[in-house]
Design brief:
The complex is a heterodimer of chains A (about 325) and B (about 300).
Chain A: H1 3-6, H2 22-29, H3 32-66, H4 84-91, H5 93-96, H6 99-124, H7 130-138, H8 145-155, H9 161-168, H10 184-209, H11 213-221, H12 226-254, H13 258-264, H14 273-282, H15 287-311
Chain B: H1 11-23, H2 26-57, H3 61-66, H4 81-89, H5 92-123, H6 129-141, H7 148-157, H8 165-173, H9 176-187, H10 191-199, H11 204-215, H12 217-233, H13 236-241, H14 250-255, H15 265-298
Helix pairs in contact in B: 2-15, 4-15, 5-8, 5-9, 5-12, 9-12, 10-11, 12-15
The chains are: A mainly alpha (about 325), B mainly alpha (about 300).
Pfam family, one (chain B): BPD_transp_1
Keywords (chain B): Cell membrane, Membrane, Transmembrane, Transmembrane helix, Transport
Membrane topology (chain B): Multi-pass membrane protein
Chain lengths: ~325, ~300
Amino acid sequence: MTPTSSSLRRVPAGAATPQDTPQARRSRRKGSSRGRQALTPWLFLLVPLAFLVTFSYVPIINMIVYSFTDWDGVSPDYAFTGVENYVEIFTRPELFKVFVASLYYLAAAGLQIALALYFATVLSFNTRFRNLFKGILFFPYLINGVAIGFVFLYFFQEGGTFDTVLGLLGVGGEHLWLGDPDLVNFSLAGVSVWRFLGLNFVLFLGGIQSIAPELYEAAELDGAGRWQQFRFIIVPSLRPLIGLTAILAISGCLSVFEIPYIMTGGAGASETFVIQTVKLAFRFNKTGLASAAAVVLLIIILLVTWLQRRLVPEERAVA
Amino acid sequence: MPAGPGGVRGAGGKGRRARPVARAGWPARLATVLKYLSLVAASVVVLLPLGVVLLTSLKTSDELARGGGPLSMPDDWLNFANYVTAFEKGQMAEAAFNTFVILIVSITGTVFIGSAAAYAIDRFSFRFKKLVVAMFLFATLVPSITTQVTTFQVVNQLGLFNTRLAPIMLYLGTDIVAIYIFLQFIRSIPVSVDEAARMDGASALTVYWKIILPLLKPAIATVVIVKGIAVYNDFYIPFLYMPDQNLGTVSTSLFRFKGPFGAHWENISAGTILVIVPTLAIFLMLQRFIYNGLTQGAAK
């Protein structure tokens, strides 16, 4: 780096005298201002770090500590119980079965990524009303989660919109979309696809649009059809983005909370891991056990992230 | 402008469109039909649940009781009585005010905190720099919902529980994505720009305030959009930290419709639409910025 030559825009021409070379400046700065120089970055980092430590690291460390105790969250003291909480999590099947619900969301996430890829590809080629379709597909992502919860509570009511539409399509009957334990997770995972498809789609669309147009032109000259363009140009270019989306999807479906909590209160089969943890902590005052559950979730998510970093080498192709 | 297949709608696009028609017969046409069919189907799936709520919000409770079905049209398209009820009884004015205060303070704070941290990390070399960067990095991996159990204790001990400061502080403290957006952008500002100012005798603070911050405007726009959407839509933090009746935000006030309005779907629908309309307005006005902002914010 040669900062001298290009840096003179704001400096009058006469000021570019030899004593303003970086070396000269450095020697001038030495001595008294050396200590201040070293402090300057910390001045800027003071507030950000204070927030980071208070609201990220103190809770994480506390959580790890509490996970080895029997604390109830209110009494002034607690006893260390070793790994008892962890043993309880792994041996009481009802505490672990909530992960079954995650599988529905995971399957839904796979569907969501496939659909997003399809619509992004379709809309990246010439299409009438392109911006309208893009806007419609994307908009649900921006909607308030509680509003979405209510929209679909109404949608899935017995004899409600969904049943009516199914009736029009010739599939009769009224269903307890949110009450039947066999159906509830399908319904809720469907809402999740409805809500998050738009984000995936817009990310993929952005990725496709950053592919050099010459690639398509060259492929077309070589006689490649749409499918081949998709298979050999679009998919490889999007690979890092798809990897990133997959990891977000996995950690996302492990920490599903909002939609089931708003819509069913996390009752019965719709209970997720996070809802269970929150209930343990705030309703049953089992802070120790809840902390251990949160630590388990954290470890799983870190593991998944680490695996993804190993499997998909960092390609900074993403703009 | 991203020059992609969508961007080159001019010359190149025309050629591409002309080709299948000229060469291929019905298979290409069938593909086109299927394409539009799938797009229309997806649009119906997105719009139908929202449209039905809009219809219901315009009906009277008698109309709903009559049982015309959710797809029936309201008798009076200008019946806004439910909106008045929802707005007044749902304390929506207070909710809008609380949300607005929280939005303004936490967005402003995020911009300053994020840009200051990014400035320090990118423009200075200092001891423990690697550790500091690693600390920010690791924190992004921890899903904040998992630590709520103990974050609650911290907020409580700071005496912030049931104050507007609780969500504000949490939004400020957990936004590491903003730091990354700023960091990426600061890297693209040549160091020579601030070196020149330093030569003129400007302090680091002046350089940050007078040079870096103004140059960061596009990144600030991104952060404002990403953060604004996140804060407006957040439910859990205000729900957990501000249960006070007078401290409702848009999300939590709407959530409280569940109790008193019971099965009064006409009122709940009106409240839901009231919450969605501002989002729709912002989206229609700032479409392009929102797309760009989210693409940048999420690819971190």
